[in-house]
């Protein structure tokens, strides 16, 4: 009985719970749908509001852009309007000018017609006078022939001879005046060009010596440089060919060599060995060889930069390497690269003044001493060696000739060769360009003057141009003009045999005759 009652009650409860679940679920669903609808309406309202804001902003941007373009257009229109106004003014001025010229040309045409008429009248009058003069001349000639007893042909010939003699004398005098004037003008112009070239070229010289001083951090490094029983220093000297002087000089090591390239290799290599700390024979040879290769590459880059600095093109790579090698060579204390660059600039300036090719002139000036940087086992004057090198690398013929002729070792074929010679002399004679001990310098000049004065008939001697020229004043009673020329050759020959000097020395013998009279 209890089971029979429990089952219907259970079923009823399940049905009740099911109904209640369904009822609450439907109520919740309706509330969710309603909330979703309200949310969607809110989103649509917000979206519409944002869209209106964006639309309003875009409209403002478009208006601003339109206003800017309108302002630009107005400015451009105003500028064009101003230009048109200026053009109109210019056209009106031109019209006025043309009208004035037209009136002037009309007036000139009238004047020309009047002058033409006047000339015709004068021509008629002259023709009449010429006819009467011819008649008078005939009468006079007949009278002269009767008086002088000479025919017209004989008188003509006599007159022509006199006129020819007079014309010859006048022409000789005129030629002499023109020659003297041209000589003075040429000297003045050459001095002007040289002075301008010197003034426009300012070069600095770093005078090279035979030693380099390497600063070190402490004197303890000196022991490591020397090594055990001197192994390191011997290996370093053998690898570089440079003398290493380690003395009591505080925090310094001296490198000595006549070859600047070797000295630079040694300096850089020793700096690297000290900074690396591993100073031993094997390492020394490795670093020295590496530095030597690097400096050889740097020589090429130096030559390339020099060529670019001077604005030259088409230079053979081997020539550029030789130009870079000039950096490590000097002549009488003057760095050859700096000297060659200065000569190149001087040649270019003087060539421009003379309307010659300044590029070829600079090229010749840069390469004029290239023969000095070749191996020392090549014999011959450096000018001719440089000529052969330039010819080998197919340089311009003018450049080759200028190189070979700048010390008169061959004949000059172009004015640029003379410019190179002049620029070389200017660069070498610049104060401070070439260094020489003052005692040796003074002694050399005294020797030069005393040597020239040792010849008979010499009155006075003067060494000038820093010893590059000696002027010899002779006694005119004892020395004639023919012997003066021979004397200059004898003095030059004796100087060559008994003296050592850089470059060349010009011997000038002066024989002066003075005749004095007094007007009382």
Which stretches are poorly predicted, pLDDT < 50 over at least 5 residues?
199-208
CATH superfamily of the domain at 316-429: Hypothetical protein af1432
What fraction of residues sit in β-strands? 5-15%
Radius of gyration: 51 Å
Q: If you consult CATH, what is the topology of the domain at 316-429? A: Hypothetical protein af1432
What structural class do helix, strand and pairing data support? mainly alpha
Element string (H = helix, E = strand): HHEHHEEHHHEEHHHHHHEEHE
What's the helix count? 14
The counted number of beta strands is 8
Helix content: over 70%
Given this structure, which CATH class of the domain at 316-429 is correct? Mainly Alpha
The largest sheet has its strands arranged as: 1-3-2
Task: Specify the biggest β-sheet.
Answer: 3 strands, antiparallel
Task: Report how far apart the termini are.
Answer: 191 Å
């Amino acid at each position: 009985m209890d089971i029979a009652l429990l089952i219907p009650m259970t079923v009823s409860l399940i049905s009740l719970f099911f109904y209640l679940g369904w009822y609450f679920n439907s109520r919740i669903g309706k509330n969710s749908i309603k909330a979703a609808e309200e949310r969607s309406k809110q989103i649509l309202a917000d979206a519409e509001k944002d869209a209106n804001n964006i639309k309003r902003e875009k409209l403002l941007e478009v208006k601003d852009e339109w206003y800017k373009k309108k302002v630009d257009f107005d400015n451009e229109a105003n500028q064009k309007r101003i230009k048109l106004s200026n053009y109109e003014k210019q056209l009106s001025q031109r019209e006025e000018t043309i009208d004035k010229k037209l009136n002037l040309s009309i007036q000139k045409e009238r004047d020309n017609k009047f002058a033409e008429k006047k000339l015709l009248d004068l021509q008629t009058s002259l023709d009449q006078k010429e006819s009467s003069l011819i008649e008078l001349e005939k009468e006079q000639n007949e009278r002269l022939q009767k008086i002088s007893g000479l025919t017209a042909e004989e008188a003509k010939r006599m007159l022509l001879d006199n006129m020819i003699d007079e014309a010859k004398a006048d022409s000789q005098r005129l030629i002499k005046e023109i020659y003297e004037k041209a000589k003075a003008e040429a000297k003045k112009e050459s001095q002007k060009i040289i002075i301008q070239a010197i003034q426009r070229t300012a070069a600095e010289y770093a005078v090279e010596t035979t030693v380099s001083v390497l600063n070190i951090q402490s004197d303890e490094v000196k022991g490591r440089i020397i090594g055990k029983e001197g192994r390191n220093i011997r290996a370093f000297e053998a690898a570089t060919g440079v003398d290493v002087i380690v003395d009591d000089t505080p925090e310094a090591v001296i490198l000595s060599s006549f070859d600047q390239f070797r000295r630079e290799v040694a300096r850089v290599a020793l700096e690297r060995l000290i900074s690396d700390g591993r100073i031993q024979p094997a390492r020394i040879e490795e670093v020295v060889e590496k530095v030597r290769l690097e400096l050889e590459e740097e020589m090429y880059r130096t030559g390339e930069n020099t060529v670019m600095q001077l604005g030259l093109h088409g230079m053979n790579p081997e020539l550029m390497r030789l130009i870079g090698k000039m950096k490590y060579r000097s002549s009488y204390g003057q760095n050859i690269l700096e000297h060659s660059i200065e000569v190149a600039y001087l040649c270019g300036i003087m060539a421009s003044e003379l309307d010659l090719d300044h590029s070829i002139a600079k090229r010749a000036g840069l390469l004029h001493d290239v023969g000095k940087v070749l191996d020392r086992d090549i014999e011959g004057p450096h000018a001719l060696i440089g000529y052969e090198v330039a010819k080998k690398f197919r340089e311009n013929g003018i450049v080759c000739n200028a190189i070979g002729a700048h010390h008169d070792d061959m004949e000059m074929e172009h004015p640029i060769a003379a410019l190179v010679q002049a620029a070389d002399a200017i660069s070498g004679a610049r104060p401070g360009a070439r260094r020489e001990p003052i005692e040796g310098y003074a002694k050399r000049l005294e020797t030069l003057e005393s040597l020239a004065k040792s010849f008979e008939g010499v009155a006075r001697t003067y060494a000038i141009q820093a010893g590059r020229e000696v002027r010899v004043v002779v006694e005119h009673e004892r020395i004639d003009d023919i012997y003066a020329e021979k004397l200059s050759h004898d003095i030059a020959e004796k100087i060559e045999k008994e003296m050592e000097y850089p470059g060349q020395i010009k011997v000038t013998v002066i024989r002066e005759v003075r005749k004095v009279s007094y007007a009382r």
